[in-house]
Structure formats: structure tokens, C-alpha cells
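REQUEST FORM: STRUCTURE PREDICTION
Request ID: SP-0412
Submitted by: Lab K.M.
Chain count: 1
Length (residues): 225
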Amino acid sequence: MTFSLAARCARTGQFAAAVTSSSPAVAARCAFARAGLGAATSQNVTDPRLGPLMLAHLGQGMNAAQALRAALAAATFPEYRQLTIIDAAGGTALHSGAKTLGVHGAAQGDNAVSAGNLLANPDVPRAVVDAFMASDPAEELGRRVIMAMQAGLAAGGEAGPLKSAGLLVVHKEAWPIADLRVDWHDAPLGELAALWALWRPQMHDYVTRALNPSAAPSYGVPGDE
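STATUS: Completed
RESULT:
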């Protein structure tokens, strides 16, 4: 019921996790990222504890493969879990347990890892990764990831209709520079792309407002012209 992408921008050091599903509010429990460390997804019969756990292991100096193994060693019912992770060097790792639902698949590439379950066909994650790798590295990571997820949809997507999607992007600060969610919609990836188009022009301004309000542009609201 889900496919995802965890990715790294080699140019900026940003990380992103994106996910879409037939379930509601999928990004709230499946997409995770931490500035300077990496990104991860936890899906299928989801245990939301595993994404933060993998990132915590990265923070202890493990690489992606080591962090995944450590999380699986601590996991309950690992046979039900589907996990992906990418580290600060662009290393990736993934796990699809023996009880992953329906048609499922996973793929790895340069600075990208994708996995999915209850898919229309097992090649959807490969389409996601290939589209990300073919995208322009000069583009913002968020746009590259959304385009890659749309390529997964074009390749067949889920066996059933998608209803929710989300994108999480982290850079240098402790908070996400993008945390966009479509919790219930008939075309969630299209709606996510529209949210990105709204957010992108002001995304970095909000970082400036946090770090140096005196240098920030106006807020563009009545009374602040």
C-alpha cells in the first residue's frame, strides 16, 4: 500500500524522505530525516519507531547498512517490516521482510533508495530511483524527489488508488526546511507537487527569519508591506 524514496543531494548535503500510500496520513508515520545524518523510511505493517532508531544509529557513527542491521536486531516482528535508509556518504540499505504485503520491490542507486509494497508491479521502485538519478542535480532536492515519485506512479504505482503523500527535507538546521503533507486526496502526488510549488519560493526565507530576522524579507501579509 506504499512506495517511498529516501535520497541525498550530493551538491547541498540535504536529505529527503518521500512516501505515498492508499492509507491516510502516511508521512506522519513512515518518513524520517535528520540534518547531517540521513533519511529513512519505515513502511508495510509500519513500526514508526524504526525510522528514528535507524537515524539514531547513524548519529552513533554507523553507516546505513550497520544502522539497518542494528535496528532490525532490536525490532519486534521484523518479518513484517519494510525499511530503507541513506547515510551522509550516500550509502544505502534496505529490508523487505518475508511478510511484506503483496507485490513488492526495492531498488538502490547513487544517493537514492526506494521500496514499495502492494504495488502494481515490482519495478516501481526501480523507476523511482532511475528517475531520481536522471534528474538535474542543480535542481532543489525536493523537486527532484517529487518528480521521481511521480515517475513511480507513471510506472504503475500501487495496486490501489493513492490517497496520501508527504515530503520531508532537511539541510543544516535541526528542523526540516520542508515538511509537506497531503493526508487525504484523490491525487496526493499532484497535490504534493502543488504544495511544493507554493512552498519552494519562500522555503529558505523561513530559515533566514529564524536565524537572522533583521535580514529576512517581509512576511507579505497585511500590515507588513
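NOTES: DSSP finds six helices and ten strands in the chain.
Reviewed by: T.R.
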